[in-house]
Write a structure and sequence with these properties.
Blueprint lengths: L1 E2 L13 E4 L3 E6 L12 E2 L3 E2 L21 H8 L1 H17 L2 H12 L1 H6 L9 E3 L9 H13 L4 E6 L2 H11 L6 E7 L5 H6 L5 E6 L10 H8 L24 H4 L9 E5 L2
Parallel strand pairs: 1-5, 3-6, 6-7, 7-8, 8-9, 9-10
Antiparallel strand pairs: 2-3, 4-5
Helix pairs in contact: 1-2, 5-6
Length: 270
């Protein structure tokens, strides 16, 4: 078995990006490896990208097939720039070094704001957690929450399928930081039990595949989704939406998922 990238764990560095074509340039972001120990990412049949397991644990099982996972696709398509960065972030996450480094990074970027308290002096206003990857544990939810508490000037946004550990967090802590905006990833009712237990406490971001010919939802569900506010970045045909002047619609134009308002948003399959 050939391994394309060997990662130097002892010298792992923090990798932060300032946006991309989907979220826009106004949102800072961090990514981790997708997949898990049972779903490693290969190029071709026998070429493994890296032997570091991804962060998606059991939540990978429903996505790591048929190219359904965008993070999986991006890792393969752009492996020359993604593998090392995402793998080193993953190493830092699991070694316990990540959050201290992130705290230092944000503090440095927003140093002028801490002196002036002027909102225009914030270099980092919005931060996307896990463009790729998933929260792995209760401890990680707590660490992200603590980072948000330490930087109230920044809105931290995340999408998660890890309802099990989020439930543990709520039972233990009872409350999420006001600037830690958690979007529950819902699709075909998988989050129904969790959302019933915690009504109106989290944003919801729901996958809507009613634009696909193979959609098997009943008419009641189709009708409900048709009345739900949809992400403005994706058209009903599953393409990237454009502004009137031809630019791609990006997350930093909307910020609905980065604002704690207990919003419910659907996104067409794309």
């Amino acid at each position: 078995m050939k391994k394309l990238y060997s990662i130097d764990a002892e010298n792992a560095q923090l990798h932060i990006s300032k946006g991309n074509s989907k979220i826009g340039k106004g949102i800072w972001a961090i990514s981790f490896l997708p997949g898990n120990k049972d779903h490693m990412v290969y190029i071709g049949k026998n070429v493994l990208l890296t032997d570091i397991p991804g962060t998606c644990s059991k939540y990978c099982d429903g996505c790591a097939k048929d190219g359904a996972c965008y993070a999986w696709r991006d890792l393969k398509l752009h492996h020359n720039v993604t593998v090392k960065a995402w793998a080193e972030n993953t190493i830092l996450l699991r070694s316990g070094q990540l959050f201290e480094k992130l705290d230092e990074f944000i503090t440095q970027k927003n140093k002028d704001y801490y002196v002036s308290k002027g909102v225009k002096d914030r270099k980092i206003i919005t931060f996307r957690i896990n463009v790729s990857g998933e929260v792995e544990s209760l401890a990680q939810f707590e660490a992200w929450n603590n980072l948000a508490l330490h930087h109230p000037e920044v809105n931290f946004g995340i999408y998660t399928k890890n309802f099990d550990d989020l439930d543990k967090f709520m039972k233990k802590n009872g409350k999420i930081a006001d600037n830690f905006i958690i979007n529950i990833s819902e699709w075909h009712g998988v989050a129904k039990e969790f959302l019933t237990k915690y009504p109106n406490q989290f944003n919801v971001f729901e996958y809507d595949d009613t634009n696909r010919k193979d959609c098997d939802l009943d008419n009641v569900e189709k009708e409900r989704l048709s009345k739900t506010v949809h992400c403005p970045a994706v058209t009903k045909t599953g393409h990237h939406a454009k502004t009137k002047d031809g630019r791609d619609v990006t997350c930093d134009m909307c910020r609905r998922c980065y604002t704690k308002g207990h919003t419910y948003t659907a996104v067409y399959s794309h």
